[in-house]
Amino acid sequence: xxxxxxxxxxxxxxxxxxxxxxxxxxxxxxxxxxxxxxxxxxxxxxxxxxxxxxxxxxxxxxxxxxxxxxxxxxxxxxxxxxxxxxxxxxxxxxxxxxxxxxxxxxxxxxxxxxxxxxxxxxxxxxxxxxxxxxxxxxxxxxxxxxxxxxxxxxxxxxxxxxxxxxxxxxxxxxxxxxxxxxxxxxxxxxxxxxxxxxxxxxxxxxxxxxxxxxxxxxxxxxxxxxxxxxxxxxxxxxxxxxxxxxxxxxxxxxxxxxxxxxxxxxxxxxxxxxxxxxxxxxxxxxxxxxxxxxxxxxxxxxxxxxxxxxxxxxxxxxxxxxxxxxxxxxxxxxxxxxxxxxxxxxxxxxxxxxxxxxxxxxxxxxxxxxxxxxxxxxxxxxxxxxxxxxxxxxxxxxxxxxxxxxxxxxxxxxxxxxxxxxxxxxxxxxxxxxxxxxxxxxxxxxxxxxxxxxxxxxxxxxxxxxxxxxxxxxxxxxxxxxxxxxxxxxxxxxxxxxxxxxxxxxxxxxxxxxxxxxxxxxxxxxxxxxxxxxxxxxxxxxxxxxxxxxxxxxxxxxxxxxxxxxxxxxxxxxxxxxxxxxxxxxxxxxxxxxxxxxxxxxxxxxxxxxxxxxxxxxxxxxxxxxxxxxxxxxxxxxxxxxxxxxxxxxxxxxxxxxxxxxxxxxxxxxxxxxxxxxxxxxxxxxxxxxxxxxxxxxxxxxxxxxxxxxxxxxxxxxxxxxxxxxxxxxxxxxxxxxxxxxxxxxxxxxxxxxxxxxxxxxxxxxxxxxxxxxxxxxxxxxxx
Length: 784
Fold this sequence. Notes:
The protein starts with a helix and ends with a strand. Helix 5 packs antiparallel against helix 6 and helix 21 runs antiparallel to helix 22. The longest helix is centred in the first third of the chain and has 32 residues, at 99-130. It has five domains: 4-43, no CATH class; 55-137 and 151-158, no CATH class; 179-227 and 648-678, Fumarase C, Chain B, domain 1 (Orthogonal Bundle), CATH 1.10.275; 251-370 and 414-521, Choline/Carnitine o-acyltransferase, domain 2 (Chloramphenicol Acetyltransferase, 2-Layer Sandwich); 551-647 and 679-764, Chloramphenicol acetyltransferase-like domain (Chloramphenicol Acetyltransferase). The strands form seven sheets. It has an eight-stranded mixed beta sheet with strand order 16-10-9-13-14-15-3-21, with helices on both faces. A six-stranded mixed beta sheet has the order 17-23-22-20-18-19. It is 47% helix and 14% strand. It is an alpha+beta fold. It is a multi-pass membrane protein. Residues 764-784 are annotated as: Disordered. Its EC number is 2.3.1.21. Pathway: Lipid metabolism; fatty acid beta-oxidation. The chain crosses the membrane at residues 50-74, 103-126.
């Protein structure tokens, strides 16, 4: 109870001589320093709000405009063309103010209005410039004169040293495609998946929709696009993520892995110490908006709004829909270890604890032998099961008293940490199987040792390995990957470890112990926990996972063949799927729409007429020249679709929003109903490396992450995530379900390997035979 006594700032006792007041100087100092830290953050936020608010100008430019106007006035010229005199006439000032002072004040007011007008004009110009997307459709390496002029203008109007959110007010809104174009592109996308009779029926449904209900729904959608910053994102978050009533574990959450071939330290507490410290350093940069905005071609900004809810965020269950709650900066994290939950403060006297001090605190939790409270050990299963039972249990058993206080502590934490007693990573005599187990552990764990509602949870394993599990509604994977790249690089290359594998630095042994959370779990609540665990366990057991690192070649060799690496992998996936199932399927590839304000994702339908023609030709034994020509056409088509999706010309988000409008209006559309019910049997996603400068692939090639993955979207389909790393590696994460007799993650992985080799052999006939070294590298454990 030492931490409880330290939390009390003063104590008093009544004695015969009066009241004896005892002040706790340590607690008062803590309160004072916490207040100072809070005010510092408020001042920084205010300063950044001003800088972002006037961007692409700067606050100092106001002074320049004021001086310029005053200087012209003293040269007996009037740049305001009489406006300054008009302002002076209507100034509500005291008669005691001299005429000269009134003139100066009027000039300052005019200068301020002129400055604001210039900012508005620059921002409007930048917004119009960023609406130009023809540059994306030009051949790589060949930039037109128009695009060169455009790039120069964008850089002129972009200002200097932008903060993370500086571009937000200048980003264009996501355009609403015409119904005619969307329907046309949709019919083209499903042609290879339907026979003539099915296609003719769908064409009639589409024509009927386009000529009648479609225009009515489009009118409402255009109205929303005029009013809202983005006509898709809020509905996408609510209806795709928050209104889902099935478990978010496996079905929605995704994971990210640690370094593949190296473990910086084998000490669990030390790894947690460095990593947690690095994550809070990132949060500090995020709060100060010091993270650079993501620029395409070093000039075109992407939307950064998804970063806002990265920390201090939790998904709250509801009976009809969940909500995402975001709080102000928490000074602690929630930690789970062997069935107990702890509150670990990472700030002491207003400063962030050093990595060594965090390691010391984590070790205290690991050494704590206290048993979990009754019903506490598997409490996290509530977040892994169905949402409605969890919402009802939360309202009934966690809405007051000690349970509410403990639950608030978890939900309001900066993020969640699990100290896992298992060992994971690429290890042992069967590294392939160990990677599969590692993926499943990060995706679902034991179904009760993660808090799946938190924006993200970090898992630290007994052997020093780590990983993340992230909730999907608040942001997409690239945003989470940006944080994880920073944490991995800072952990290994900046903070480092001493010769014994511990964090560097000294420890303040007077730090208060981590606070164990207390619970009073009723038998009825325990029954609900057991039911949620049963649902989650059945789902987890059904997941079949296969992770492998393909090292025979990478994007370096693919680019020499003058092919987009992403298109190359997508064609390999089409070929692998056809070889396994002897048919084609609706294929989902995630693309981003962050060129627009509050943009999230769009779907690239990778199975096209061109890709299916190529696969049939290759499997039918056509001549190599014919197959190469068809492959080029298919990859070019894929790139065209990807560019269309990125620039607002996608299909699926538009159709989704039309469907939502139809539901609001209470009208049925057979066309939209059928479109939205089609299963994605092949769901794919590429996670790009965003901060290449943080890693040295030449001198430290072993410091590479294995990427991350997600669960299968369809019960009879595959989820495939791939991570193109460096010039010679592609990591694949394949998921499916054991309950489907037609899917097998390992067999599909074998087909992908074969397809990759066959394609590179087709494009470069003189390539060497595939090597047998794949996945044979042992893991290197670093102690320092």
